[in-house]
Fold this protein.
Amino acid sequence: MLIVNASPRTAGKTTDTAWLGHALQEHALEVEGFDADHSMQFWDWARAGKFSFPVHRKATARFHEEVELPEGKISLVDCGHTENHPAITDSLFKAADLVILHMAPTRADYLRVEKPPEATPFRDIVKRSSVLRPDGKPPAAWVLLNRCHPSSKRHEGMTKHYADRMERAGWNVFDTVIPNLGLYGQSMNFPIVGAKDTHFGDLVVEMKEKGLLP
């Protein structure tokens, strides 16, 4: 299974990918990581933080041709910014089973996703991959709201406002939200332990309940 973590711009995507990978593994799922971002932060973090699953560098527009996905594992990709790397994004979406769009519940992120002034709207990037896929359909796509107020819930305040707004626009939105906590924001290049007992563990449970995981 290939899960692609993507966003138009910087949105905490690499942090989310690392924590989600560990939460999946702590839920007894086999994980393999791919860094498809030229910044190589995910790959570098895996080395510095001594991740318990491998992360490979693969920022290429030929990902769908060059990578043989392992059987029985969840392949988790940190995708480069879709605004800047459309060819890599297209390659990943050709093969993706699930796309997770990472965004904060802010007007800035909403506009960057839905109405970018000089880029392709994210929904169109997902949709255009359909003609390149064997089944002629785009991959399943879900929104993960992150960098939320530490005390906010899915059905409160601006988190609710943007969750509802994305749903009205036709997006699937996870009930689990990721708060803006130092635990996550300051974890770069450190080991990750106990991910199952965090919001990312809750996300894995929700993904299982929604039939998004094997």
In short: DSSP finds nine helices and seven strands in the chain. Residues 13-26 form the longest helix (14 residues). The two ends are 8 Å apart (CA to CA). The mean pLDDT is 95.
